[in-house]
Structures are given as structure tokens and as C-alpha cells.
Amino acid sequence: MKGFNRWLTVITSLTMAVSAAYAAPKTLTNYEQLLQALEQGDEVRAIIHMDKCTVNKADVKGAADIGGSSTRINFTLFSHYKVPVNGQEKYTVATSQTLFTEHRAFGPVYAYGRLRVFEDNSAEFHAAYYDPKTYELKGAVNYNCHLGNGADQNSIVLFDASV
Length: 163
Hints:
- The protein is globular, with a radius of gyration of 20 Å.
- Helix content is 18%, strand content 47%.
- Strands 1, 2, 3, 4, 5, 6, 7, 8, 9 and 10 form a ten-stranded mixed β-sheet that branches.
- It is built from two helices and ten strands, in the order αβαβββββββββ.
- It has one domain (25-160).
- A hairpin with a 3-residue loop joins strand 7 (107-118) and strand 8 (122-130).
- Mean pLDDT is 86; it is low at 16-20.
């Protein structure tokens, strides 16, 4: 019977370990949860649905995409600081990344994306597209977004992938 109990303990432990490894990530729904997760070293990811954001047409440069697309950005590296927004200072958590991709209007480009999440749960996603040979700016757009839970109509969903 002792051998069976040991075997059962091993199987139960392995099952729990595998289940934990494949657990669904936790959704973060506000700035405070984001900041707490980052400050404790968690892996946070953002899914940005640009078609649910608003765009000021005056902020669009070139033939930048302004709808129907989405992207993911990781908070592997981030900054936490105050920034002036509409005459007020707001705390923000910001991250950015650059990748080589293909744009439907520009062809092959370096795509730069910067996500800033503000303390009022609003966010700004800046996308810019650069020629890979000359580094000339081909197009850019600023999206004004809001944090959501994935089931609402808000444009950004944050996931804590460490849990």
C-alpha cells in the first residue's frame, strides 16, 4: 500500500505542476493592477485592438493603417514616470518595441510601437513605420485607447502571464 501511496503522490504532484503551467493568464483591468504586476516582476502582455481606439486624423502621417488591425506588445522593459497630457501631469507606464514586418501600403518596414498606459486607465498607442534602408519615416498614427477586460468594447486588454 505504501508503494501505491507514493505513486499516487507523484502522479498528483505532476498533474498539479502541468495544470499550473497551462493556467490561463490573469486579466489586468486597470493601471494599478498593471503597475503592481510589473513591480513584482510579472510578465505582462497587452493586446491592442486599434479599431476600438479613436484617432485624431490630424495625427496621421502618410498612409498609416487606422483600423481593423491588432497587435501585441510585451512589458518586458518598461518605464514608469510622469508626462504632461493636455496641460496636466499624469503618471504613465510605457513600453515600446520595433520589429521588421510588411505594411500593406509601404511594403517591408521597421514598425515601431509605443504603448503608454495612464493612471486614469486611458492609453495611447503610437505606431510609426520606417524604411528599412533609409530609416525615413513612411507613416505614423496615434491611437487613443482605454483598458478593458476583453468582453467589453474597450481597446486594450492586459494579461499577467506569470500566474
